[in-house]
Design a protein that fits this description.
Number of helices: 12
Strand content: 15-25%
Shape: rod-shaped
Bound molecules: 2-{3-[(4-chloropyridin-2-yl)amino]phenoxy}-N-methylacetamide
Largest sheet: 7 strands, mixed
Length: about 350
């Protein structure tokens, strides 16, 4: 090929390149097109390989044309890239942000089911004149057991075998020590509820070594068992939002006399079906214990048992939520699994 033919081809390459990159809109594609000409096996390089075959006098002309076309290609690339950058910058400036748009909603949390149940229960008792009392979870053996009529050798201690930190210090197995402490510092009339964590050596689908109890205590002149019945009937019908009856089954607790287990009418079958799984066909669901405060308890806290009487009751809040909200494993409360928590 002659020098003139080679130069003509270079000119053609330059013109074609200009056409070729006009529609290209990203740097990568433009660089690829550039490499097809200037790369090791590119079209310009193919022309350069012809130069040694030309008569020596013609070589500088073709060499100069190669350099010119290389510069031209590079200029074209630079120009096209600048155009693209300008277009992008203009689009950026033209973009408008509507600062008046409302913010995207942030997913809101809510109280844990057990907290809801505790606050609801406290609210219901507050409507009857009870106030909340609190006390330590790490308790003395005396406040937890002795004052409640269970000395160290008493067989009833097995009912709520607990965690001993030493001979005299325990994790409370019920919130009764809160009531003992209240009676020690406050004269009747007393009307308190004591919600809080308690600890027992117990572990299955309905028992946990730590659970939440709510106990109530009323002490005044003339308090009778009927007052206890009235309070618990009111509580059950308010908490379950239905007119459910309550029954009292004679039972033993060391700190009350008489003592009774509290059952409520089965909220699932209403006591009608003999085959209900929730109440195991009995028509009743056990919700807690209760009774009239034993005079020996009053003796331990310096309340005159001749003048005053009182009732007390206790229930597990996990169990109340299990019955009302259909929770079938106590561990769900403590696992923090959102699939559970978000249902309530
Ligand atoms: C249950 C049983 C009960 C009490 C708690 C109590 C407290 C004092 C004096 C007398 Cl200071 N009694 N509390 C009485 C009877 C039963 O709870 O099953 N709890 C989950």
């Amino acid at each position: 090929m002659s020098a003139d033919q080679l130069i003509a081809r270079l000119e053609q390459i330059g013109t074609e390149f200009q056409q070729a990159i006009r529609p290209l809109a990203d740097e990568q594609a433009i660089r690829a097109a550039q490499a097809q000409l200037l790369g090791k096996h590119g079209r310009v390089s193919e022309v350069m390989k012809e130069i040694p075959r030309l008569p020596p006098a013609d070589r500088p002309r073709v060499g100069a044309a190669v350099n010119r076309i290389k510069t031209e290609i590079e200029d074209q690339v630079a120009r096209r890239l600048r155009e693209l950058a300008d277009t992008a910058a203009r689009a950026d400036l033209a973009r408008t942000v509507d600062v008046t748009l409302p913010a995207r909603p942030v997913g809101g949390g809510h109280l844990h089911l057990l907290t809801q149940v505790r606050l609801e229960a406290v609210q219901i008792f507050a409507e009857l004149g009870f106030v909340v009392a609190e006390g330590p979870q790490i308790e003395t053996d005396w406040h937890t057991f002795e004052a409640l009529g269970t000395p160290k050798d008493h067989p009833a201690r097995d009912m709520q075998d607990t965690f001993y930190l030493s001979d005299e210090i325990v994790l409370r197995s019920h919130t009764s020590p809160v009531q003992i402490r209240t009676m020690q510092i406050q004269a009747p009339p007393i009307r308190i509820v004591a919600p809080g964590h308690v600890f027992r050596r117990d572990d299955d689908t309905t028992h946990s070594p730590m659970f939440t109890q709510l106990e109530g205590l009323a002490v005044d002149e003339g308090i009778a068992f009927t007052d206890l019945k009235g309070v618990l009937i009111h509580f059950v019908s308010r908490f379950f939002a239905r007119d459910l009856t309550v029954r009292f089954r004679p039972s033993y607790f060391p700190f009350v006399e008489p003592g009774a287990e509290v059952d409520m009418q089965c909220s699932f079958c209403m006591g009608a079906s003999a085959g209900c799984r929730l109440c195991k066909g009995t028509g009743w669901l056990e919700i807690g214990g209760s009774g009239m405060v034993d005079p020996t308890v009053f003796g331990h806290v310096g309340i005159d048992a001749e003048r005053y009487t009182g009732f007390a009751f206790g229930m597990g809040l996990e169990r109340m939520a299990m019955l009302r909200n259909g929770v079938d494993n106590i561990k769900f409360y403590y696992e923090g699994d959102l699939r559970f928590l978000e249902q309530f």
